[in-house]
Automatic annotation (TrEMBL):
Pfam families registered for this protein in UniProt: cNMP_binding
Superkingdom assignment: Bacteria
Gene3D superfamilies in UniProt: Jelly Rolls
Domain Cyclic nucleotide-binding: 9-52
InterPro entries the record matches: cNMP-bd_dom, cNMP-bd_dom_sf, RmlC-like_jellyroll
UniProt-recorded name of the protein: Cyclic nucleotide-binding protein
Length: 188
């Protein structure tokens, strides 16, 4: 999906505003296994995924807890670290070689001052993230493991081939053994 089409999912930008935003984007690449942000570091850049898969997670008691995956055309960030410019409580890493367009926090704030439409776009994107987090929380508390697995397969089936299953199991709150059983028996 082209970037303009992705933005239209949230808010339609006029041509001048779209050009203003995109001319401020720069490109950066990371290798598989590279960290974009580590716990304790403040995320200074907001990334728009061009290629690759990324994962936000934290570790406790030798266990990895996966919070989110990102892939094209979505944006990629530790939201609270970027939005409030505070140290991150968790990690953002590349599961595959990845390429991004990005904008710094300072550059984005300047664009907000220049364009109400760009500010509205990012506000609506933030609202969708908030609603998605709430929906995910409800799913984790109310759906069976099979229902969670099926919902994941409906929304992000390509990740089954790109992401180690132990990470998907963690994301879904499913024991890796039960995930393996679901993967081998539930037809999608």
């Amino acid at each position: 999906m082209e970037r303009y089409e992705y933005f239209k999912l949230f808010h339609v930008l006029g041509t001048a505003d779209y050009v203003l935003l995109t001319k401020n984007l720069k490109t950066k690449t990371f290798k598989k296994g590279d960290f974009i942000t580590v716990a304790g570091q403040t995320q200074r850049e907001l990334y728009f995924v061009k290629s690759g898969v990324q994962m936000a997670y934290f570790d406790t008691d030798n266990k990895t807890h996966v919070l989110a995956f990102a892939y094209s055309p979505k944006f990629c960030a530790i939201a609270e670290s970027f939005l409030f410019q505070v140290p991150s409580k968790y990690f953002l890493t590349c599961l595959t070689d990845s390429e991004f367009d990005y904008i710094t926090f300072e550059e984005l704030q300047k664009l907000f001052d220049q364009s109400q439409q760009i500010e509205r776009l990012f506000r609506r994107m933030t609202e969708v993230v908030l609603a998605s987090v709430i929906n995910r929380h409800i799913e984790l508390l109310s759906l069976t493991i099979e229902e969670r697995y099926k919902a994941f397969c409906k929304h992000s089936p390509h990740l089954l081939q790109l992401v180690p299953h132990k990470y998907i199991a963690s994301y879904l709150g499913i024991n890796p053994t039960n995930f393996s059983k679901l993967f081998n028996t539930v037809k999608i």
